[in-house]
Write a structure and sequence with these properties.
Structural class: alpha/beta
Largest sheet: 7 strands, mixed
Strand content: 15-25%
Number of strands: 18
Shape: globular
Helix content: 10-25%
Strand order of the largest sheet: 1-4-7-12-15-17-18
Order of helices and strands: HHHEEEEEEEEEHEEEEEEEEEH
Distance between the termini: 61 Å
Radius of gyration: 19 Å
Length: 206
């Protein structure tokens, strides 16, 4: 690398093509794996230690975040989590680009957020070993069901509900229910949803 030339890490963060085999990036992922190994093997009652590990790993995380082990990510440093985020088992985040998660977001089991991608051209993907990444944003109050996959460059709007098993390859607006592969909006969320819930489960849900 010549003077003034961007490092592979700088290229990755800038959204340019880069090589993940770069020694700096390889060591960064290895360091993250060591932290995650401890996190995923903590005693079930040791909430304080898990929060301490998350604070040292993630770019930003509030005190009121709960991620059920096992949890996996590439670097951690590019993940921002808001208040009262809950993630069920097996959350995987490939944070080669920034991942921004708003307040009150819920993740079902085995959700995957993948910012990383590879060239379609075989030669670039293999001989050149190029890859690239695009940011993902999950808006405040969104709920992603079990086995949802979110691809590079996607924004999911505030309070949106993504049905289990969906593969999200394009932006989803706020306040909608969206499902499928590829994920599509099926309807808006309205006051009728609240009323139907109260009728089904009683006034305690008010």
């Amino acid at each position: 690398m010549t003077a003034g030339e961007a490092t592979e890490r700088e290229r990755m963060i800038a959204g340019r093509t880069y090589r993940s085999t770069d020694p700096e990036l390889t060591e960064a992922r290895a360091a993250t794996k060591r932290v995650l190994h401890e996190y995923n093997n903590t005693h079930p009652d040791d909430e304080a230690r898990r929060l301490e590990l998350l604070r040292g790993l993630l770019g930003s995380v509030s005190e009121h975040v709960w991620i059920e082990p096992p949890f996996r990510c590439d670097y951690g440093s590019q993940i921002t989590m808001g208040e009262f985020v809950f993630a069920n088992y097996d959350l995987t985040i490939l944070d080669c680009a920034p991942v921004t998660i708003g307040d009150l977001v819920l993740f079902g089991p085995r959700v995957t957020i993948a910012t990383a991608s590879h060239p379609v051209d075989f030669r670039q993907r293999t001989a050149d070993m190029f890859e690239y990444a695009q940011p993902v944003t999950i808006g405040e109050g969104a709920w992603l069901g079990a086995h949802v996959v979110v691809g590079p460059g996607v924004t999911i709007g505030a309070r949106a509900v993504i049905g289990a098993g969906s593969i999200v390859t394009r932006d989803i607006p706020p306040d909608v229910v969206a499902v499928g592969n590829p994920c599509r909006v099926v309807r808006d969320i309205t006051e009728q949803d609240r009323q139907a819930y109260l009728e089904a489960f009683g006034a305690a849900g008010a």
